[in-house]
Amino acid sequence: MRKTERHSVEGSNALWQMYKTVSFLKVVKNFLVIQLARYTPWLPMKNWLYKNFLNMKVGDKTAFALMVMVDLMFPERITVGNDSVIGYNTTLLTHEYLIDEYRLGDIKIGDQVMIGANCTILPGVSIGDRATVAAGTVVTKDVEPGSFVGGNPMRVIYTKEEIEQKNQSKFD
């Protein structure tokens, strides 16, 4: 189960009320920084932009590929550990605006995590250290450390133990 905070709204759908939940000027600033970072090929510059202008927690040697889209409204709720790779055109969402409510949740990505291209990470999800997320996966729940997941809906392809056993059998 994802860990999200639920906030009810009355009247029109929650997206029409978004500027009651986040400042318009914050969204404009975030949009400009995110668009610059999406097209910047220099990894240290991307991480600097994310840390200094969006208040994201980004570890050393983490690589955000071209076109990664971080959450526009609440990017400060994203934490990525050291030496991780976030694949091309992946989306990291920390909010969901629905009809009668909106939800907020932190995204926590561990150390040495590999996330393939075109993935969507939903709010309230944690991805453990050394996990691998296959390209095109919609991450709807937590990913255990060292496991390999993929698909839509996401499923565990190999657990950490299965991967270790498979690797060990290569040397026997």
UniProtKB/TrEMBL annotation:
<dbReference type="InterPro" id="IPR011004">
    <property type="entry name" value="Trimer_LpxA-like_sf"/>
</dbReference>
<dbReference type="Pfam" id="PF14602">
    <property type="entry name" value="Hexapep_2"/>
</dbReference>
<dbReference type="InterPro" id="IPR001451">
    <property type="entry name" value="Hexapep"/>
</dbReference>
<protein>
    <submittedName>
        <fullName>Heptaprenylglyceryl phosphate O-acetyltransferase</fullName>
    </submittedName>
</protein>
<dbReference type="InterPro" id="IPR050179">
    <property type="entry name" value="Trans_hexapeptide_repeat"/>
</dbReference>
